[in-house]
């Protein structure tokens, strides 16, 4: 049997991977909805509730970071292999408003055996309000049950 590459693993186990990642406890607590996941990419949305704003009445930076970090996590774990964040840089460009719908999109720029790089954009009702650059460390183990003959 040939060795299955990560893209093949992603497609074979995509539904299982999606179900596991969409149920991340903190994302569930905040109300973040995973809308899409592909090879090294993810899209999620969140309705900004009254308790998610700062003193100025705009979206708290921690909420923006949380949805950005969530799509980063989904994107870098989308191959079923455990990946963890090493570093992130967030640029806050404009305020999000109470009652707005946030959308975060993560795109994989490059990956190798051990590391992967991502760009994330965060929009508030369609307006770009923040970006994140993120670096992940890729471990050897899988968080799904993979047929060991395939890898």
TrEMBL record:
Q: Does the keyword Lipid biosynthesis apply?
A: no
One Pfam family linked to the record? 4HBT
Top-rank lineage group of the source organism: Bacteria
Every Thioesterase domain range = 56-127
- Gene3D superfamilies documented for this protein: Hotdog Thioesterase (3.10.129.10)
Give GO terms: molecular function aspect only. Answer: acyl-CoA hydrolase activity
InterPro entries according to UniProt: Acyl-CoA_thioesterase_PaaI, HotDog_dom_sf, PAAI_dom, Thioestr_dom
**What UniProt keywords apply to this chain's record, in alphabetical order?**
Hydrolase
Q: Does the keyword Cytoplasm apply?
A: no
PANTHER family for the chain? ACYL-COENZYME A THIOESTERASE PAAI (PTHR42856)
Kindly give the NCBIfam families that the UniProt entry links to this protein: unchar_dom_1
Q: What is this protein called?
A: Phenylacetate degradation protein
Q: Which organism is it from?
A: Heyndrickxia camelliae
């Amino acid at each position: 049997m040939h060795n299955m590459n990560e893209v093949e693993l992603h497609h074979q186990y995509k539904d299982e991977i999606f179900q596991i990642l969409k149920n991340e406890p903190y994302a569930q607590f905040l109300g973040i909805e995973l809308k899409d996941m592909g090879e090294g990419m993810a899209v999620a949305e969140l309705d900004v509730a009254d308790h998610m704003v700062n003193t100025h009445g705009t979206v708290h930076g921690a909420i923006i970071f949380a949805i950005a970090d969530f799509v980063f996590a989904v994107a870098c774990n989308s191959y079923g292999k455990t990946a963890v964040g090493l570093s992130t840089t967030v640029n806050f460009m404009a305020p999000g408003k109470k009652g707005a719908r946030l959308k975060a999109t993560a795109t994989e720029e490059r990956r190798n055996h051990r590391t992967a790089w991502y760009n994330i954009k965060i929009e508030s009702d369609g307006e770009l309000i923040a970006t994140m650059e993120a670096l992940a460390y890729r471990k050897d183990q899988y968080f799904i049950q993979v047929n060991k003959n395939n890898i």
